[in-house]
Amino acid sequence: MSALRLLVIVAPLRLTVWILAVAAAAIIILIAIGVSRHLESVRADRRREQVRAEFGPLFSRFLQTRDPVRLADELRPAFRRMDAAHRPVAAVLITDMMSQASPSQKKQIRDALEEAGLVDLGHRGTRRRSPWRRALACEMLGKIGAARSVPVLLDRLGDRRPEVRMGAVQALGDLGSEEAVPALSHAFVERRVAPTDVVNDALRRIGGEAVTAFERGVVSPDPIVRISSCFGLSAIAEAASACVSRLAVVLDTDSDDRVRTAAASALGILGGDDAPAALRRASTDPDVHVRRSSVKALGSFDDPTNGQTLDRCTEDDDRETAIRAAEALLALARRPRAAPEARALLESSSAWAVEYAQTVAAVSA
Q1: Which of 116, 126, 256, 322 could form a disulfide with 76 if both were Cys (CB 3.0 to 4.6 A apart)?
Q2: In CATH, what number does 273-365 get?
C-alpha cells in the first residue's frame, strides 16, 4: 500500500516537471526568435542607412546635373562594392527613385542604369533561389522600364511562386509593351498566373491591343472574367466607341445579373453623347442591381432621350433606383444637349426622389 501511495504522489509530480520543462523550453525558443528578429531588423535598418548614404548623394547630384553618363560611372563601382544583403535594399531605392521621377528623368536614369549594368543584374535576379528576391527583381525591372526586360519577365509568368508571377505581371504592365499582350490575355481569360484584377490592371495600362483580351473575356464561360472584362473595356479610352457597343450587347444578352450590372456600370464610366438603347431598356430589368447601375449610367451620357426614362424611374419601387434616377436627371440638367429636357422634367416632377435629390444637392453645394 505504501508503494502505491508513493506512486500516486510521484507520478503527478513527474508530469508537472515535464510540463514545466516543456513550457520553459517553449519560452526560451520564443525569446530566441524574438531576439533574432530584432537583430535582423537592426541589421536591415543599418543596411538601408548604408545604401541611402551611398546612393542618396549620387541621385541628388544627378537631379542637379542631369548627367546620366556620370551617374552610370558612379553607380557601377558602388554596386560592385555591395554584397548580396545590400543589393536588394539598393533595388528598393532605385524602384522608389523611378516611381518619383518625371518622364524625362526616368529616361535618363534608365540609360544610366543600363550603362551601369543594373538591368542585367536585375535579369539575373529574376532567377535567384529566393522567391522574394525574384519578385523584387521583377518589380525593379518594371520600374526601370527597359524594353529588353519583357522576355525575361514573360518567362517569370511560369514561376512556381505566386508572388513572383504577380510581380512579373505588374512589371509588364509598368513596361506597357504590347509584346506581353498575348501571354497576359491568355492568363486573364484562363484565370491563371495571377489574380484576375492584377492581370486586368496590367492589360489596362498597356492599352492598345489589350482590348482584344477584354473582348474575348466578355464571352468567357466564367462570370468573374466577364465582369472583369466589362470594367477592362471601360478603361481602354482609345477604343471607347467600340467598347460602348460591345458593352451594350453584354447588357442586352448576358444571363448573369452580376455581369449585366457590371456592363451598365462600365457604360457609365465611359459616358459620351448618345446612350445605347440597351441602357434605357435595362432600366426595367427584373434585377434591382441592374436597374440601379443602369439609371446611374444614363446620367453620364449627354443624351436628351434619357430624360423620359429617368423621369419614369424616379417612381421605381426600389428606393435606391428612384434616388439614382433623380440624381442622374440632375446630372443631365448640367449637360449641354440634355439640359433643356431634363430641367423641364425636374420642374414638372412631383416624385419624392426628385425632391430628395434636389435637397441633398442644395445642402452639398
Answers
A1: 116
A2: 1.25.10.10
